[in-house]
Amino acid sequence: MYFEIVGEIGDVELIARGPSVRERARLRTQFGAGRWRKLKGTATVRFRDGTVCRAEVHWYEAHGVGRKKLKIKRFLE
């Protein structure tokens, strides 16, 4: 991962759940079974070079598995 989340993720919204998650089969194969959901939120992120900024992040999450495949979708500042 080329960035890390600093603090908490706020303004969390559900994008998709259950059969609407397109990558569900691959997530199940790679990380295990669970109720997979795709979520988005805003967070402060820090890059390897020390730069800190606010960004919208998307990720997949399942109970018992946790957050997987975090991705920055756009910068807010």
Listing every helix as H and every strand as E from the N terminus to the C terminus, the arrangement reads EHEEE
**Poorly predicted residue ranges:** none
Please indicate the percent range of residues in DSSP E strands (runs of 2 or more). Answer: over 45%
Main beta-sheet annotation: 4 strands, antiparallel
Adjacency order of strands in the biggest sheet: 1-2-3-4
Give a structural overview.
- There is one protein chain.
- With 77 residues, this protein is mainly beta.
- The protein has one domain.
- The protein is 10% helix and 61% strand.
- The protein is built from one helix and four strands.
- It has a four-stranded antiparallel beta sheet, with no helix packed on it.
- The model has no long low-confidence stretch (mean pLDDT 94).
Observed structural traits:
elongated, four-stranded antiparallel β-sheet, 10% helix, 77 residues
Topology, element by element:
Elements: E1 3-17, H1 24-31, E2 37-47, E3 52-62, E4 66-75
Question: What's a quick, concise take on this entry?
Answer:
By secondary structure, the protein is mainly beta. It has one helix at residues 24-31; strands at 3-17, 37-47, 52-62, 66-75.
